[in-house]
Structures are given as structure tokens and as C-alpha cells.
Specification:
The protein is of the alpha/beta class. The protein folds into 2 domains: 157 residues, Lyase, Ornithine Decarboxylase, Chain A, domain 1; 246 residues, Alanine racemase (TIM Barrel), CATH 3.20.20. Helix content is 28%, strand content 25%. It contains 12 helices and 21 strands. Strands 4, 14, 15, 16, 17, 18, 19, 20 and 21 form a 9-stranded mixed beta sheet that branches. Strands 5-6-7-8-9-11-12-13 form an 8-stranded parallel beta barrel, surrounded by 4 helices. A 3-stranded antiparallel beta sheet has the order 1-2-3. Helix 2 runs parallel beside helix 9, helix 5 crosses helix 6 and helix 8 packs parallel to helix 9. Bound molecules: ligand LLP. Ligand LLP binds next to helix 10 and helix 11.
Length: 421
């Protein structure tokens, strides 16, 4: 459920008309709803209410805007970070280091030092060489780094190949069958305190079965590790729960269904559970608001050319992702259309042969469910500036990232001496 609704025939976000935001800030612009963020955190937390003090670490990659992070920090969430940049953003937004976990296959020594200086809760290690490097870095600072190994359970998440992470051929984690050896080697490393096990098999999962299969494997590994004398105290079950994008599709499992499965599978585990939800917290809390530039007749269907493009919202061109496209002021008429951006490649397509509200030049449209992996994945292809972002709370709203001036795109480049006159 979200707080984007039609009032007197026009879309509002909470109590703010979309039209007012478009008028003031221009388009394209990402618009986020605080009430929706709060609701999703509440629902996720309620699903885990039976657990003792779980750590819910928001996957910052899904939406790293400082205002979004500060909202989630106020609600008590931690952060799952994958770079020094994300770590600093989380800390700056008020998320305590004691609630930060650092994931990712390619942490550098510099990033490890930064995270150790902040005293984060856990590093999720993805290989033995990484464990050795972290041990060295920690030992050189006179510290012991709290770590888990992310295991690769070889489970097919049943999601898009580009966001599946738990198959043995994927780059993530240590192979399940090598786990006991990797833990044994890590125990002898002076700079590590081996405290946990982690898993994350992919994103936008619409079936709980692969998650359950992975968690069952984690449970068996915890038993084996404890039997081998490892003091395993944490289990990080990752993120991955899907959200509804297409109203015509069956609903994905709810956070309540997910929580019930987690509680059932983990009931005897002698550990603190950790979670890294991203999309389920922010996905439906954001839309990309865009204006129709013109409508052009096509051979089969009209092309609705909007002022947002693949550089602003990459998901359709990258993963053939489906985003609902709604007119901000629907006339009531519907027809089939293709929705495309102005970028000069065919991949800059948001929808083909879509049954949608009939729109014309200057109308506003909203790309729904764009709060996760939207603005954060934007780029400046075709020399288009990064998309601004707005956060709404009740009847208040604020620009939380400005649209950079076009000049900034040009001034960032440097012409070397030998080309300057
Ligand atoms: N933990 C780890 C280690 C991850 O790699 C991810 C996402 C998450 C947690 C959060 O997963 P979520 O709950 O959001 O599914 N750009 C893609 C999604 C990439 C996900 C990458 N990892 C998309 O737009 O669909």
C-alpha cells in the first residue's frame, strides 16, 4: 500500500498535488512519500515481531538519499552498505555504526579501514583472500573485525538473471561446501572475530520457497559451525523480498508471510537475526514524475515521448522491468501506446503496447514503484543532468536533491593544457 492517490481527479502524494511539485521543481523528478516509508518499516517490523531484537539494516543501495536515510534512521533502522560512500552516507544520516553491516565482494583496504574506524557491527566477507586482507588491516589498527561469511547456497532465486546472486556460478559468497574450511582458516586470523553467517540470494523474489531453502542451509551450517567450536552469534538473512509492480500480476508474498516463514525456520537458532531489506522498504514509496513532450504517430501504436529517459530510470532498459505508468490527471480514456524517452537508442523504452491512460503533450505521468533502484542508478547519458528528488510528509514537501545546472555537466570536464589555446 502507498500514499499516492487520486483526489478530485488528480494524483496526490499524501496531501500534496503532484502538479504543484512539477510546477515548482520541473520534471523529471523523483517524489517520495514519508508516510509510505513509515508504513513499510512498520509492516516489515511487525512481520518479525516474534524475534528477539532483530537488526533491520536497510540496503542503502536501493535509495541512498540523505533525507530518506534520515527518515529510516529515525525509525530505528540500521544500514547495509556496500562501499565507503554508502557507509559515510548512512553515518551522516544518523544511522549508528552499531547498526551497520558492510557487504560486497570488492571491499578495498581503504574501505575496511574506514569501517573499522567507525566501529561497524559486522563485515560480511565473501572470500578467503578478503578475510586475510581484513585481518591484516584490523591487526595493523590493533583491532579485531567482527565478521560473518556470506555463503553461496546454490539456490535459484527464480528472479531476473541480472539480480540473482545465490547460484554457484554467481560471483557472490563462498561456496557452501567450502564453508567449514573457510571458517576454520578465518579462526586462525588474528584480526578477525568470527561471529556470524550471512546469505542473500537475489532481489525481487516473488516466491518464498528459494529463500526458505537458503535459510534451511544456513541453519544446518550454523549447527555444523557451532559443533566445530565456532561461536556463531549472528545470522544475516539478507534482503530480496519482492514488491508489486504490475497490478495485473499476483501479489508477491507479504512481509507478514515472509516473517512467518523466517520465524518458523529459525525458531531454534541460537543467534541474533539480521535482515537487509531494500526494495520492500522504499519501492512503492517513490514515483518518477515526468511530463509528456509530444505524442508521435507510430506504425502500430502512438509513441508517447516523455521527458524522463533511461538515464533517469534504468530498470526497464536494464532488466525489462515493468513500471505502472499513470496519468496524473486521467481523462478516463484508455488506449494502447508505447512510452519512450528522448535518449537516442531503442533501449530507451519504458513500455511497448501498453494499455494505459490516454495522454497528450504537456500532461504529467507518474512511473510508479520507482523509489527503489531509481534515482540511485541514474546517470547523465546524453548529457542529461541527474534527476532531482523531493520528499513529502503530510502537506509539507522539500527538494532533497536539487537538479544540477546543465553547466555543471560541462564544467566537470577538464581540457588539458595541450588542447587549450
Ligand atoms: N543485501 C545485499 C547483499 C544485496 O546485494 C541486496 C541487493 C540487498 C541486500 C537488497 O535487496 P532488496 O531487498 O532490495 O531486494 N538494481 C536492481 C536490484 C539490485 C539488487 C542488488 N542487491 C533492480 O533495480 O531491480
Amino acid at each position: 500500500m502507498d500514499h499516492f492517490s487520486y483526489v478530485d481527479g488528480a494524483m496526490q502524494v499524501e496531501q500534496v498535488p503532484m502538479e504543484a511539485i512539477a510546477q515548482a521543481v520541473g520534471t523529471p523528478v523523483y517524489v517520495y512519500s514519508t508516510a509510505t516509508l513509515e508504513r513499510h518499516v512498520g509492516v516489515f517490523r511487525d512481520g518479525l515481531a516474534q524475534l528477539d531484537d532483530p537488526l533491520i539494516a536497510f540496503a542503502v543501495k536501493a535509495n541512498p538519499n540523505a533525507a530518506v536515510l534520515a527518515t529510516l534512521a529515525k525509525l530505528g533502522l540500521g544500514a547495509d552498505v556496500v562501499s565507503g560512500g554508502e557507509l559515510l552516507r548512512a553515518v551522516a544520516a544518523g544511522i549508528p555504526a552499531s547498526r551497520i553491516v558492510f557487504s560486497g565482494v570488492g571491499k578495498t583496504a581503504e574501505e575496511m579501514r574506514l569501517a573499522l574506524d567507525h566501529g561497524i557491527y559486522q563485515f560480511n566477507l565473501e572470500s578467503e583472500p578478503e578475510a586475510e586482507m581484513l585481518s591484516q588491516v584490523a591487526a595493523s589498527l590493533g583491532k579485531r573485525a567482527p565478521v560473518a561469511f556470506r555463503i553461496n547456497p546454490d539456490v535459484d532465486a527464480g528472479t531476473h538473471a541480472k539480480i540473482s546472486t545465490g547460484k554457484s556460478e554467481n560471483k557472490f559468497g563462498i561456496p557452501y561446501d567450502r564453508a567449514l574450511d573457510s571458517y576454520a582458516a578465518a579462526r586462525d586470523l588474528p584480526g578477525l572475530d568470527v561471529q556470524g553467517v550471512a546469505v542473500h540470494i537475489g532481489s525481487q523474489l516473488t516466491d518464498l520457497a528459494p529463500l526458505e531453502a537458503a535459510f534451511v542451509k544456513v541453519g544446518a551450517l550454523i549447527d555444523a559451525l557451532r559443533a566445530a567450536g565456532h561461536d556463531i552469534r549472528t545470522a544475516d538473512l539478507g534482503g530480496g523480498l519482492g514488491v508489486p509492480y504490475d497490478p495485473a500480476q499476483p501479489l508477491p508474498p507479504s512481509p507478514a508471510d515472509y516473517g512467518a516463514m523466517v520465524c518458523r525456520v529459525t525458531q531454534d537458532w541460537p543467534v541474533r537475526l539480521m535482515f537487509e531489506p531494500g526494495r520492500v522498504i522504499v519501492g512503492n514509496a517513490g514515483v518518477l514524475l515526468s511530463r509528456v513532450i509530444r505524442v508521435k504517430q507510430g506504425a502500430q501504436a502512438p509513441f508517447v515521448i516523455v521527458d524522463a529517459a533511461m538515464n533517469d530510470l534504468m530498470r526497464p532498459s536494464l532488466y525489462d522491468a515493468w513500471h505502472d505508468i499513470r496519468a496524473v490527471k486521467p481523462s478516463g480514456a484508455r488506449a494502447t501506446a508505447n512510452v519512450v524517452g528522448p535518449v537516442c537508442e531503442t533501449g530507451d523504452t519504458f513500455a511497448m503496447h501498453r494499455d494505459m491512460d490516454v495522454v497528450q503533450a504537456d500532461d504529467l505521468v507518474a512511473f510508479m514503484t520507482a523509489g527503489a533502484y531509481g534515482a540511485t542508478m541514474a546517470g547523465t547519458y546524453n548529457s542529461r543532468p541527474l534527476t532531482p528528488e523531493v520528499l513529502v510528509s503530510g502537506d509539507k514537501w522539500a527538494v532533497v536533491r536539487d537538479r544540477p545546472p546543465l553547466r555543471a555537466l560541462i564544467d566537470g570536464d577538464i581540457i588539458p593544457d595541450w588542447l587549450a589555446d
